[in-house]
Amino acid sequence: MAAQEHAHAQNPEAGAVGAGSRQPRGFQAKAGRAGPEAELRRAEGGPARMGESIPLAAPVPVEQAVLETFFSHLGIFSYDKAKDNVEKEREANKGAGGSWLALLAALAHLAVAEKAYHSLTYLGQKLGGQSFFSRKDSIRTIYTSLHNELKKVVVTGRGAAGGTVPHLEELLSHLSEQLCFFVQARVEIADFYEKMYTLSTQKSINSEELVSLLESILKKYSSRFHHPILSPLESSFQLEVDVLAHLLKSQAQISEWKFLLSLVNLHSAHTKLQTWGQIFEKQRETKKHLFGGQSQKAVQPPHLFLWLMKLKNMLLAKFSFYFHEALSRQTTASEMKALTAKANPDLFGKISSFIRKYDAANVSLIFDNRGSESFQGHGYHHPHSYREAPKGVDQYPAVVSLPSDRPVMHWPNVIMIMTDRTSDLNTLEKIVHFYDDKVQSTYFLTRPEPHFTLVVIFESKKSEKDSHFLSFLNELSHALKNPKVFASLKPGSKG
User: Fold this and answer.
1) Structural domains of the chain in order of their starting residue, each with its CATH number
2) Which residue would you say has higher pLDDT here, 33 or 402?
């Protein structure tokens, strides 16, 4: 086992072993190493004798080299290369039989399953009766079949006694057992994506509930597939779920108007997505041209990675909007305008254009902080700093106000409407209209999220049926809720 668990292939290609260089079962010849007696003793876990040179690394059994190459490819999302390698090995040893061939077959299926998983094409599909791996149905079916294959290898390895390679059987059984846990984890995360996809039709999304569910899955499978040979697989799995957890936490924290926590999680997700993206940048694929010649380009990332980038960018736009005042204190007005213009969607730009076009007196996003013990105002505050809890109109601050500070004279009216029309606003769909003839002003209100209310104020009479105002508020509210980003989990969907 010591030799079998020793030294990972840093370069995926380095682990490939050609048929012509194959040594007697279990070892790969390496120049400059200690003699065969010492190598064999070390492979069996024995110490070096006095005077023996200690090699830089123990010899790598052929099977281990194949496995390391396979998982190195999977770790960098190179599914086709991973599948091709194990299929070639299986073809070269088709007369061997036993658990090695069975595991190679399962690994080929694992590569196909991983490709399907990262493509997210299984979302929204119903169970069907098409052929294995070609059907467009539940990823659960694919992984369940794979789990059954791996279980057979586990049982075969446990039942193996004696023989020339008992350590190999033990290793294959051990790896298969850990891969069973990996497959189960994949199924649960795939179900998690399915749940998020179905939430795209909901009025609001409870991000805290999603975070709790994701963390329970992680806790369940923590360190369940930790073998060194599986480390590339474990690392890629951890990278994915870390990014997802950071983004969902940030989404929940932005909706609670928690500046520092949402910023930290957004930054962590951004850093890890950069690390992930570099994996694809470093991989090049060669394209042959019709009339000769060839060119190289970076590998196209899978849909899952692109979707996580999309979610991050949406949250970045929302963060920039909700915390605009705190962020604008750190730079000039012109630079802030240029930075927010890059956001997608550019909510600040949309509101500014609307105000100019329809001569609105004010557009504000109001945060209802009643019951929030931690509320201290814009930006970051030291956790031990003291500030009295807001009272009266200060319980309804405008976290965003355009074109300038909130209109103080209108605020009592705004709060009165919010209080009187609470049930309508709490549907998170309705637009409330109110005209006050005393001040000759019209108010339109809607609630995109439980703690936030959008208000548009005109210092003139406006119809409650004006489609321009209604569509603007609906569009802005929808952009803040943004269920489309969850709908876009499914490839080809709009969002």
Assistant:
1) 61-123+135-199 (no CATH), 205-288+305-319 (1.10.3450.30), 345-482 (3.30.450.240)
2) 402
